[in-house]
Specification:
Structural class of chain B: alpha+beta
Strand content of chain A: 25-35%
Largest sheet of chain B: 5 strands, mixed
Number of domains of chain B: 2
Number of strands of chain B: 5
Strand order of the largest sheet of chain A: 4-5-10-6-7
Structural class of chain A: alpha+beta
Strand content of chain B: 15-25%
Number of helices of chain A: 12
Radius of gyration of chain B: 16 Å
Largest interface: A-B, 33 and 33 residues
Helix content of chain B: 25-40%
Distance between the termini of chain B: 59 Å
Order of helices and strands of chain B: EEHEEEHHHHH
Helix content of chain A: 25-40%
Oligomer: heterodimer
């Protein structure tokens, strides 16, 4: 299908873009890579009056390391994250997740800012950023707001962004000593939408885990942290019993949905399977992968 | 409302200027305005890969880039890639391995495969499959396509010595 007609503006500066956005509000959509927005336009799921193309605002580019934080400009493309030495070194979870984001041709153009502003519940980065306790930096003509990743994603394609705000950067804490990471997703085909996915950060000391953050995606209307399961894993040494308790707690943490890819029951089952595998991998004890009741 | 926008870009080495409606995507622009119909249109929402083109040296979906966004860019289509001779060996391998049946996906397959081959080395079949995973062949001739890419990679490596 073809997109409905719209106007187009390509501001040279962020201030100009923010001014346009304030003027047009909900009638405008921000575009840069367009890898989520243009399909929605072509399918006429969206028909904005104007597109504001921020793709040439250089201030929104670049990956910089400041102290213990990696700052990723909103226009950073997935291919740039994939090839970035600082990301590989400081953000191993991001490096592991990026190859699962769509296909090379999409990664060549899609940006991290667009990815998270779009807030597809099956997208990898919203879960990764929550697992890493990242901050989403947004700006309007009134100034900057800094939003914790776990507060940012509010529903299917919905975020805490206001109509006059643009995502400008993501700030991600660099990996610290003792932290371990896990990423896995079940998908029918490489690069396809996940059926269930999990991004984990935890600090491992002997047989115990602390600082546990379990970012699930494609299991509900938004990427979400499984807090009760994380608490179960943090209560003393991790045993088969604590893994089972964590897996059981996922029934409270997650609200899986039915769709054409899988039933809600299948999703909950797969979430428990992937959690068991994550714990077994991170604690280097295959017996912890456990078994799950269907 | 929705005024046309003037763009100037380089397509297959030639400078082109045009007025385009903002909603026109790059694949339609190439086909309808420039008659470069080697860029095929399948799904028009980024799933099938038939519309793959090179934009500033990188392979992208022609249906997910607006023509106005290509203002100032360099675009290479399968026609330009073919004329340059850059993929003559890959095209030969596609013919030899019967890696095209209806041919609809072939331009996108060639663009995408060449992006991988240009990285050098001899990718294994799994790597080839992973790299090509965003390109559909609805004749389902995937084995032969992977064969052709693998054969070309090996031949280029041998030629490099």
């Amino acid at each position: 299908m073809k997109a409905a007609a719209f106007d187009y503006a390509r501001p040279a500066t962020l201030d100009e873009a923010l001014g346009l956005l304030r003027r047009h509000g909900d009638a405008a959509k921000i575009v840069s890579g367009g890898q989520s927005l243009v399909p929605a336009l072509n399918l006429r799921l969206l028909s904005p009056e104007i597109l504001i193309d921020i793709g040439r605002i250089d201030a929104l580019r670049g990956i910089t390391v400041e102290g213990g934080t990696v700052r990723i400009g909103a226009l950073t493309r997935h291919v740039e994250l994939m090839n970035s030495a600082p990301v590989a070194e400081k953000l191993p979870l991001v490096a592991e997740a990026i190859p699962h984001v769509a296909h090379p041709a999409i990664r060549n153009r899609g940006t991290i800012g667009g990815n998270i502003a779009h807030a597809d519940p099956a997208s990898e980065m919203p879960a990764v950023l929550q697992a890493l306790d990242a901050v989403i930096v947004v700006r309007s003509a009134d100034g900057e707001r800094r939003i914790a990743a776990e507060e940012f994603f509010t529903g299917i394609y919905e975020t805490a962004l206001r109509a006059d705000e643009i995502v400008t950067a993501v700030e991600v804490p660099a990996a610290k000593a003792g932290e371990r990471f896990f990423f896995h997703e079940f998908a029918r085909r490489s690069g396809d939408y996940a059926i269930v996915g999990l991004a984990v950060r935890m600090t491992v000391s002997g047989a115990s885990a602390s600082n546990v953050r379990l970012g699930f995606f494609a299991v509900g209307d938004k990427a979400t942290l499984a807090e009760k399961a994380a608490a179960a894993l943090s209560a003393g040494p991790v045993t088969a019993a604590t893994v089972a308790a964590a897996q059981a707690a996922l029934a409270d943490d997650l609200t899986p949905q039915d769709d054409q890819q899988a039933s809600a029951a299948t999703r909950l089952h797969l979430a428990r399977v992937v959690l068991g595998r994550a714990v077994a991998a991170l604690l280097e004890d295959p017996s912890l992968a456990g078994r799950t009741a269907a | 409302m929705t005024a046309s926008v003037s763009i100037t870009l380089k397509v297959n080495g030639e400078t082109v200027s045009a007025d385009v409606p903002p909603r026109m995507h790059l694949a339609d622009f190439l086909r309808e305005r420039l008659a470069l119909t080697g860029t095929h249109i399948g799904c028009e929402h980024g799933v099938c890969g038939a519309c793959s083109v090179r934009l500033n040296g990188e392979v992208v979906r022609g249906c997910l880039v607006l023509a106005v966004q290509a203002d100032g860019a360099e675009v290479l289509t399968v026609e330009g890639l073919s004329d340059s001779g850059e993929i003559a060996d890959l095209q030969e391998a596609f013919r030899n391995r019967n890696a095209l049946q209806c041919g609809y996906c072939t331009p996108g397959m060639l663009l995408t495969a060449q992006e991988l081959l240009a990285q050098g080395g001899v990718p294994d079949r799994e790597t080839i499959r992973e790299h090509m995973s965003g390109n559909y062949c609805r004749c389902t001739g995937y084995q032969a396509i992977v064969d052709a890419v693998e054969t070309t990679a090996a031949a280029r490596a041998a030629a490099r010595g």
